[in-house]
Specification:
alpha/beta, globular, binds erythose-4-phosphate
C-alpha cells in the first residue's frame, strides 16, 4: 500500500518524507489556498518545490472544467516535473481528458469520485489513480469504506489497472480499514500515518527495557 500525504504544507511534507515511508503527495486548490499559495506562477512553483522534497508522485489539479482547458493545463503541469500526475475532476469533459492523457502516456488522478459508477468510468478512460473521497461520504452519513470495497470488487472483476487511491482519509482507522479492503494507496494528513505508530504496550515495554538496562549498567 502506498502512503501519500494530502497537504501543500512543505514542513509537513518534509516531516513525512523524513519518516521514510512516504510514496507521494496529493494537493488540491483548497489545500493550496490554505497555505496562502495564490496566483498561477506561485502555484506552479509550489508544485516544483513539493517534487523536490518527495521522491514519488505529486498530484496537481487542473482548474479548467472544459476539455481544451484541461488538456492545456495538464500538459503545462506535466512539463513542470516528471513526478507530476494530472488531477482531473470526475465530470464529462474530465472523462474525455483522462482518455486523452492516457493515450498520450500522461499519468492522471481522477478526483471527486463518490460512486462505483464514477470509478468504473475513470478506469475505462485509463486513469492511473481513482480518488474516492471516503471522509466526505462519512460526513453525510454514507459509508465511505463501503465504496472502497465496491470499487475493489469491480476493478478485480475486470483486472483494471487503475489504482484505488483512498482520499479524504481523516484518521488512522481509515488507513487500516483501507489497507484491509485492498486500497492501493491512501492519502491523508500526517497524523493519520503517525497514528499507526502508537500502542501503549510499545511505550510500556520500551520503558521497562530501558529501565532494566540501566539496572545492569
Ligand atoms: C484528495 O486528493 C483530496 O485532496 C482530499 O483527500 C480531500 O480531503 P478532505 O475531504 O479532507 O478535504
Amino acid at each position: 500500500m502506498k502512503f501519500f500525504i494530502d497537504t501543500a504544507n512543505l514542513d509537513q511534507i518534509r516531516e513525512a518524507q523524513a519518516l521514510g515511508v512516504l510514496d507521494g503527495v496529493t494537493t488540491n486548490p483548497s489545500l493550496m489556498a490554505k497555505e496562502g499559495i495564490t496566483g498561477r506562477n506561485n502555484i506552479l512553483k509550489h508544485y516544483v518545490d513539493i517534487c523536490d522534497i518527495v521522491e514519488g508522485d505529486v498530484s496537481a489539479e487542473v482548474i479548467s472544467t472544459d476539455f481544451e482547458g484541461m488538456i492545456k493545463e495538464g500538459e503545462e503541469l506535466v512539463d513542470l516535473h516528471e513526478q507530476i500526475v494530472v488531477k482531473v475532476p470526475m465530470i464529462k469533459d474530465g472523462v474525455k481528458a483522462l482518455k486523452y492523457f492516457s493515450d498520450k502516456g500522461i499519468r492522471t488522478n481522477c478526483t471527486l469520485v463518490f460512486s462505483v459508477g464514477q470509478a468504473l468510468l475513470a478506469a475505462k478512460a485509463g486513469a492511473t489513480y481513482v480518488s474516492p473521497f471516503i471522509g466526505r461520504l462519512d460526513d453525510i452519513s454514507t459509508d465511505g469504506l463501503n465504496l472502497i470495497a465496491e470499487i475493489r470488487h469491480v476493478y478485480d472483476n475486470y483486472a483494471f489497472e487503475t489504482q484505488i487511491l483512498a482520499a479524504s482519509v481523516r484518521h488512522t482507522m481509515h488507513v487500516i480499514d483501507c489497507a484491509k479492503l485492498g486500497a492501493d494507496v491512501m492519502t491523508g494528513p500526517l497524523s493519520s500515518i503517525e497514528g499507526l505508530l502508537k500502542h501503549p504496550l510499545t511505550d510500556i515495554g520500551l520503558a521497562k527495557f530501558l529501565a532494566d538496562y540501566k539496572k545492569g549498567n
